[in-house]
Amino acid sequence: MWGLRPGVVAFRGTGVPDGWGELLAALEIDIEGMVPVGVPASVSEFFYSRNGERTQRVWSPQGSGIGVPYLPADTGEPIRRLRLTPEHIPRRYSDVRGAHLGPIHGDAQRAMADALAGLGILTLDPYPHVMAELTEENLRTLLAQLTAFLPSREEVRVRFPDLAPEAALDRLAPLARVATVVKLGGRGALVHDRATGRRHAVPAVPVHVKDPTGAGDAFCGGFLAGLVEGRGVLGAAACGSVSASFAIEDFSLDGLRRSKPKERDRRARWVLEHVK
């Protein structure tokens, strides 16, 4: 939707619904990096409360149905035991202008960050267990390689349970090279621009929400697109907010498929006009 051709590196488990390839192709997403594996694709259920809190239910060994404060590294699903490595990245992706590391196991994420550190732009969104379990030294080492760090409020909360998102952002802000963002769901995002030393509140675009699942991932993709296009930190955050707004207007990827440049640009202007 931003005029760029993204590619995906991920495991492709069995049982994926028919038509998924056509859906990604309609969004001009390159899937050469999708690695087929002979285990079922991951399945999750999300439950949303009126105040915006989310509970995730995942597969676990029979009889272990327990509640935990955050998703552990191993839920029991076979596909979650696999590790992406830099060797899974297609060779022709070597000239990309930027990359985003989505939530994967901490050791795999660190290996990917090491391999991609030479890119001009590298962003990362962690799993909660990574935020909870990384030592301060390892967190600093990981974030020092990043252009931007993009955790959600849930991920920040497991590391700083007693801090408000603003205070937690202040703790994390010196670590990434260019920007740190705390995604706040329907409240938008808190953005720290390291060059200016300023913290900004970037609003969520007001739209009718059908399904908020994937809003954070869409924000990260839009943010990366904004950085790649040279829009600056706030411009990238506006791209993230706009991408999320289309994602939540429908189930699956249908909202993103229906996005049009004119409406995309109108929403981006609205976001920038309402930054605080």
From TrEMBL:
Gene3D superfamilies: 3.40.1190.20. One of its GO terms (molecular function) is kinase activity. The keyword Kinase applies. Residues 131-251 form the Carbohydrate kinase PfkB domain. Transmembrane segments: none annotated. Keywords: Kinase, Transferase. InterPro entries: Carboh/pur_kinase_PfkB_CS, PfkB_dom, Ribokinase-like. PROSITE patterns: PFKB_KINASES_2. It holds the Pfam family PfkB. PANTHER family: PROTEIN MAK32 (PTHR47098:SF2). This is Carbohydrate kinase family protein. The lineage of its organism: Bacteria, Bacillati, Candidatus Sysuimicrobiota, Candidatus Sysuimicrobiia, Candidatus Sysuimicrobiales.
